[in-house]
Design goal:
Layout lengths: L1 E4 L2 E7 H7 L8 E3 L7 H5 L6 H13 L5 H11 L6 E3 L4 E5 L9 H15 L7 E6 L3 H10 L5 E8 L5 H8 L5 E7 L2 H12 L2 H6 L1 E4 L5 H17 L7 E6 L4 H11 L6 E6 L4 H8 L23 H7 L5 H9 L2 E5 L2 H15 L5 H16 L4 E6 L7 H8 L7 H4 L9 E4 L2 H10 L2
Helix pairs in contact: 3-4, 3-10, 4-5, 5-6, 5-10, 6-7, 10-11, 15-16
Bound molecules: the ligand N[C@@H](CCOP(=O)(O)O)C(=O)O.
């Protein structure tokens, strides 16, 4: 398997190079040089395959013989060890629950697969690998859990101070061992920009082996495509067009769905659901892309003002000029944005109507699917429920006006001691910290 940089198709890398470097030197993003189709017979018979089989088929189709069969099985068995069930709300609306992993967010699929793959590629290396990761809430906890105590790899998580929930913060600041947290006086976009700058700093990279664990790393993105097939498999067949509604921040999850579609997933359309951080819905509506500083919202993991994976969306649907690229994207993706008041109101509605607790991110997804289905009534939609509602327990209980269940592994975090170093949002501060702690 070969990958190229979205900034220059001649800048190519093997899977191992792409995964271990995270980002190409030209600050583009890695994309597979060729996106192969899954065997149509396999797709027709998805119901006969387990989630693990599906993941295996997607990987072997993409990777070819890059990783020996037996090694790939082990990587997948160690990472895809929890389910992704589809729950029916009504005949038109279904929820794909992606929060049954260790950190109770969809990022567990990507983070665990990536940790396994990196350890595999890192065998025999003597120099420690440092993973830098920026989080607006959920990535940090998943990466911390995925890489915890992984030999030869340490993880440094940058998160925006005061902009993640109390339990999200505990997930990424309380593990210790090879996991460190930096609390940044800024936004998620500041954290992400600092991380990206570190990768481009040759003085630093000569001293420290760096890689990324955000969805800018292709190893995070690929496993996120597995569950689209898994969800499609679980949906009762009816012949109505199927749409996936994806609550979106950095747009890795939606891009993984587009990858699945390119590989043959029979999906009619994707719906990009955002909170007030709506740069992609605005692009879909008028063709202008204007990144701007992120705003704080209830659905904090989606508080991203300059989504990294937008570059991959453009690459996947590249036309002959900007207008045709925009048209290509519009033909596959609809966009909707909602504010916090609408999000809270729909959480109450879904709680009362279906006795189902949505988290604020899933609620934005519900709103977007509902808006789309008002215009396209004969469709069936799957909302990606990206995180367990208990991760946002204070907001959720206040909005719903009643207690919700909290999983044991989350509840026990509340009393753990937070350990994080506080830094201003300046690249120089991060560089100095890294050099001091290398
Ligand atoms: N929503 C994210 C932001 C980072 O996104 P990623 O998918 O690129 O890691 C978060 O929860 O941190």
């Amino acid at each position: 398997m070969l990958l190229y940089s979205t900034k220059n198709k001649n800048n190519q890398a093997s899977l191992q190079e792409a995964v271990m470097k995270g980002l190409p030197d030209d600050n583009g993003l890695y994309m597979p040089e060729h996106i192969p189709q899954l065997d149509p017979e396999f797709i027709q018979n998805l119901a006969n395959y387990s989630f693990l089989d599906i993941a295996h088929e997607v990987c072997t189709t993409l990777f070819g013989d890059t990783i020996p069969e037996a090694d790939l099985r082990i990587i997948l068995e160690n990472s895809m060890d929890f389910p992704a069930p589809v729950v029916k709300l009504d005949d038109q609306k279904y929820v794909l629950e992606l929060f049954h992993g260790p950190s109770l967010a969809f990022k567990d699929f990507g983070a665990r697969f990536m940790a396994q793959l990196m350890s595999y590629f890192n065998r025999g290396e003597t120099k420690e690998l440092t993973i830098l990761v920026a989080t607006s809430g959920d990535t940090g906890g998943a990466v911390a859990a995925g890489f915890y105590k992984t030999p030869g790899i340490r993880v440094i998580i940058l998160y925006p101070s005061g902009k993640v929930s109390m339990l999200q913060e505990k997930q990424l600041t309380t593990l210790g061992h090879n996991i460190s947290a930096l609390e940044i006086n800024g936004t998620f976009d500041d954290c992400q920009a600092m991380v990206k700058q570190a990768f481009l700093d040759s003085e630093l990279t000569q001293k420290i082996r760096l890689s990324s664990a955000n969805s800018i790393n292709i190893a995070r993105l690929i496993p996120q495509s597995f569950y689209y097939f898994e969800a499609y498999k679980q949906l009762p067949q009816s012949g109505d067009p199927i749409v996936f509604c994806v609550p979106s921040g950095n747009f890795g999850n939606l891009t993984a769905g587009l990858l699945a579609a390119k590989m043959g997933l029979p999906v009619h359309r994707f719906i990009a659901a955002t909170n007030a951080n709506d740069v992609v819905p605005v692009y879909i509506s008028d063709g202008t892309y204007q990144p701007r500083p992120s705003l704080r919202t209830l659905s904090n993991a989606m508080d991203v003002g300059n989504p990294s994976n937008f570059a991959r969306m453009l690459d996947l649907y590249l036309g002959t000029d900007e207008r045709s690229t925009w048209n290509n994207i519009k033909n596959m993706v609809s966009g909707y944005a909602f504010d916090d008041a609408e999000t809270a109101k729909v959480m109450q509605l879904v709680d009362q109507k279906y006795q189902y607790t949505l988290d604020p991110h899933g609620a934005v997804g519900y709103l977007a699917l509902d808006a789309y289905q008002q215009e396209h009534p004969n469709t069936r939609g799957i909302i990606l429920e990206t995180a367990h509602p208990a991760k946002f327990i204070d907001d959720v209980e206040e909005i719903l006006g009643h207690k919700i269940e909290i999983p044991e592994r989350l509840a026990e975090l509340a009393d753990r001691e937070k350990k994080a170093d506080y830094l201003e949002a300046e690249y120089g501060k991060l560089k100095a910290w890294l050099l001091e702690h290398s």
